[in-house]
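# nightly structure sweep
# worker-07 picked up a monomer target from the shared queue
# config: single-sequence mode, recycle default, output format = structure tokens
# input follows
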Amino acid sequence: MPIRNFSIIAHIDHGKSTLADRLLQATKAVSERDAKAQLLDSMELERERGITIKASAVTVHHSFGGEDYELNFIDTPGHVDFTYEVSRALTACEGALLIVDSTQGVEAQTVANAYLAIENDLELIPVVNKIDLPSANPEKVAMEIEQILGLPSENCIYCSAKTGEGIQQLLDIICEKLPPPREAVVKETRALIFDSHYDDYRGVVVYFRVFDGSLSKGDKILMMGTDRTFTITELGRYTPTPVQARTIGTAEVGYMVAAIKTLQDVRIGDTITIAAHPAKDALPGYEEPKQMVFCDFYPASNESGSKKTEFETLREAVEKLRLNDSSFTFEAQHSEALGFGFRCGFLGLLHMEIVQERLEREGGAEIIQTAPTVNYKIELTDGSVLDIHNPADLPDPSQIQNICEPIVKVEIICPDESIGDLMRLCEGRRGIFKAQKFVSEGRQLLDYELPLAEIIYDFYDKLKSITRGYGTMDYEITEFRADNLVKVSILVNGAPVEALSLICHREKAEQRTRGMLLKLRKQIDRHQFEIALQAAIGGKIIARETVKSFRKNVTAKCYGGDITRKRKLLEKQKKGKRRMKAIGNVHIPQSAFLAILEQGE
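# output follows
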């Protein structure tokens, strides 16, 4: 039986999941009665937000030219933060459907995903979707695809995933145009792991694509990356309901259960082989996802409950989620102000938001989240390079040669009338203009180089606001570059508070910290002595706010008499305040940290 393996890639909200639903119905994999919107988006969060977070692999059958074809397709996420999911899926395929909305045209993530597919030598089929809408302009969008991506406009398939128009033609083109899988090149079995998820009853469920040989139920397998062996207890395919199988052969996609209970035993991109006759070389996988945004998660309360503490609940939720999402990292952390928590690494801001929501919903944890930071490379005077993502870990300034920050190449597609405001936004964020290209009538593409630290706070929100929702962006890390970066410490009553320290550009340090100190001043309760809130670079104070002291009227008991009696009491009060300031502790409430963190500093 001929096999075709392909992915569905697109920008957010261009109709990937709806098209996947329609393909399932057209191939009779799902009956009319069982059909529902976003069938492959099983997570509650995916349905609520209307986005795809996890890739889903499905096997269906289609008759073309008198033959029955087996089609294995993967519905992938569209947001820039989930590019790692897309790259995984593309490694297991020979072709891809590039979906473009006929009302919106080519967007920033469309371009990024297309180039990702081209780098993997995949055959691309451009699909112009949503042609049933009154504002659709499929011919114009087809010309955009040709102009920007170099794919001939006459090769575009016009369809509507909502009404089903053009779906049969698309299925025929998939069978006709996409290349068949390559033949096995070695005798030994080799299968690539492209995804996994955790099941409470069965352990880790592994999704794989067989490149050489075959896997059968009962086989003793070896994970080449971790050097661990397991016995397959269940093997099957998703159609889209799980259907068990005895054997999965060359070029086929499936899932397996092998009583794998711990995370360390499954690594995305690893190669599965038979333990008795192992392959000599592993399959060329893909790079491990690199975490670029970091923040701390602390339990909202560190008090002990009736059964377990909030920290234990958070730890269990984090460990369980790590089984389902291999792209985020965590390590234990302790803060004087917030107690025990975890330092977590993410691929981007949306990824961070999704992980936080999943921890709260699926793990039942209540979370306090610190402000996001990025990964910095520190060049030391002895020639070594240090990776840090927490300002508190910065070494002594005398040992630092340079602080290098991640630089991203940002592609923004926007309406003509927004270009001036967007350029001002980028220039204000230390952006370097690279290029401006014509996309279509009324739309342009801007190329900028920006520090990642400048876009992780509110850059995307401001972009959407300036372009009234029509602007889209995609970014990729290009290099680490040295700049005039400094660590700014926040001092409360002369004592540094590490939880609030940050790394930023020297020119922006004063502006950033003044806002922080103003918020901090409003949140800290007044004491009987004056509290100085300061921002310092090394030994130099760059900003200061003061929390005024309470004034206790010690002369109230004096009803008259000599003025020297009052002076004596006031002098005694002054000495007492001086002593209190020297030995007194300032209590910083959690609300003060939250007020700063909610505003992204």
